[in-house]
Recover the amino acids of this structure.
């Protein structure tokens, strides 16, 4: 609804106000008068009328043009076969994720206007002050207007790359929420991804991303123990993984595969997540399949972090010595500030009983992870376990 | 919508750039944008060795040899584009020969409402 009003008025703040106003009126009137036959249409009409009122009072040239546009739409009876509101939502999503906007701005604007989170909620989830976030939102909306960012779904020649951009923003939001235990942010990211899938049903990477997020959420309840400490996947109680979410994710991947397209980064990451999610215990994890998937993933997305994850999988497939050898072959410069590298080394050394070397590697990992990250406590735990094996 | 396009040389990027068969010559780029009426005007500029910077501080006119910035990148030319929206301006800038190995900045103009 906000999306439609943004399209009609070109004024993001007015759009939000008008919708809020309509919702408030609904909350006052519907309990007494009962639900209208089409609540969505009622709300949209009220919001459009409110926007019209404000625009008339502004009386500027541009406002007159926008007024005409709204009046034209109010006058049209019935609708196009495809719901105009979902078209507008898609336009809104692509606009919020436009590459000319800074990444922080894309994230903030998507959460505010597409997910409908409050400024306070977003600020809290991303650890910035509310005023910083408000300023960021204001600057972003100004940039969209001043720089001429069009409010539309990109044309065919740009669609593939811009869709990739939208998916990247959604995954970023999901990961931020998920890693900071701001579950509602992760859930919102998944909800928007799900909407995107509905609106672009042939976009197989959107399905892949939705599957990936779904698999992550399936394991949500076992990630942390009752003391708030991180539980490695190997130690998680798999009976508490949400099987219905795993099945849902599997379904999304199945639909994605029907496209016949070669899987891209999200489908491949989701397949890897499914390998873990479907294994009834850590011992049945199909490591050979996972390594093969990482090989395919590296081909589409060469990245030192993915190479690291692949090396870890090799260690579980071929043995910990092989894993260490694979870790040694990585580009250490690119990973020099990345604590999972020494942590992975430490973990293999620990399993091999090479305690002194393991401790040195855990110390190296500790240097790279800040105290507020949950991994910090885990590394310290491993160090204590190694120093006092019987405690 | 009008955009100022600054054409910027970036020697570090130029050193690493690989020419591609898709790269247009400046003549081809001009023929395209002018042919479609997307360019109002533009020109190449002489190097920064020929630049002069002027300031007035406390009533004194201060003249220095060289560009206004000490940066290792510099403006080699400009074009004023007239495009439907930013995406069109971006696609025009991306096809400029200086895009591969240099940079282009797109800046909208102030409007009477600002």
């Amino acid at each position: 609804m906000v999306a439609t009003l943004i399209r009609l008025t070109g004024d993001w703040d007015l759009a939000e106000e008008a919708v809020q106003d309509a919702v408030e009126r609904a909350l006052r009137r519907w309990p007494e008068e009962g639900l209208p036959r089409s609540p969505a249409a009622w709300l949209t009409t009220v919001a459009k009328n409110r926007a019209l009122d404000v625009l008339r009072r502004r009386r500027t040239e541009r406002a007159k043009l926008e007024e005409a546009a709204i009046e034209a739409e109010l006058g049209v009876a019935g609708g196009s076969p495809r719901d105009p509101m979902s078209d507008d939502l898609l336009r809104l999503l692509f606009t919020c994720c436009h590459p000319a906007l800074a990444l922080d701005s894309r994230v903030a604007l998507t959460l505010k206007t597409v997910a409908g989170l409050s400024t306070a909620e977003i600020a809290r989830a991303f650890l910035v002050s509310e005023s910083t976030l408000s300023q960021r939102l204001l600057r972003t909306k100004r940039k969209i207007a001043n720089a001429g960012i069009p409010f539309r779904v990109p044309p065919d020649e740009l669609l593939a790359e811009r869709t990739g951009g939208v998916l990247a923003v959604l995954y970023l939001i999901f990961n931020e929420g998920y890693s900071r235990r701001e579950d509602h942010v992760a859930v919102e990211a998944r909800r928007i991804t799900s909407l995107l899938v509905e609106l672009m049903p042939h976009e197989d990477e959107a399905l892949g991303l939705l599957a990936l997020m779904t698999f992550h959420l399936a394991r949500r309840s076992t990630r942390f123990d009752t003391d708030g400490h991180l539980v490695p996947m190997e130690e998680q109680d798999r009976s508490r993984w949400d099987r219905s979410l795993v099945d849902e994710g599997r379904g999304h991947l199945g639909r994605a595969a029907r496209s016949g397209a070669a899987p891209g980064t999200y489908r491949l990451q989701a397949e890897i997540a499914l390998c873990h999610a479907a294994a009834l215990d850590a011992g049945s994890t199909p490591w050979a399949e996972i390594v093969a998937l990482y090989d395919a993933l590296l081909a589409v997305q060469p990245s030192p972090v993915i190479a690291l994850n692949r090396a870890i999988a090799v260690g579980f497939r071929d043995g910990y010595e092989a894993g260490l050898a694979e870790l040694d072959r990585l580009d250490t410069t690119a990973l020099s500030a990345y604590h999972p590298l020494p942590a992975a080394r430490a973990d293999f050394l620990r399993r091999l009983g090479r305690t002194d070397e393991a401790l040195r590697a855990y110390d190296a990992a500790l240097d790279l992870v800040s105290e507020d990250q949950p991994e910090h406590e885990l590394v310290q735990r491993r160090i204590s376990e190694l120093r006092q094996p019987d405690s | 919508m009008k955009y100022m396009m600054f054409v910027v040389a970036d020697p570090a990027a130029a050193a690493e750039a690989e020419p591609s068969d898709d790269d247009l010559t400046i003549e081809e780029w001009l023929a395209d944008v002018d042919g479609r009426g997307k360019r109002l005007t533009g020109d190449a500029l002489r190097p920064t060795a020929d630049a002069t910077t002027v300031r007035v501080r406390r009533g004194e006119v201060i003249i220095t040899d060289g560009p206004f910035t000490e940066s290792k990148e510099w403006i080699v030319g400009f074009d004023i584009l007239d495009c439907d929206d930013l995406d069109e301006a971006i696609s025009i800038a991306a096809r400029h020969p200086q895009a591969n190995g240099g940079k282009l900045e797109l800046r909208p103009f102030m409007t009477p409402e600002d």
Observations:
- Chain A touches chain B at residues 62, 98, 100, 146-150, 154, 158 (CB under 8 Å).
- Residues 110 and 116 of chain A are 8 Å apart (CA to CA).
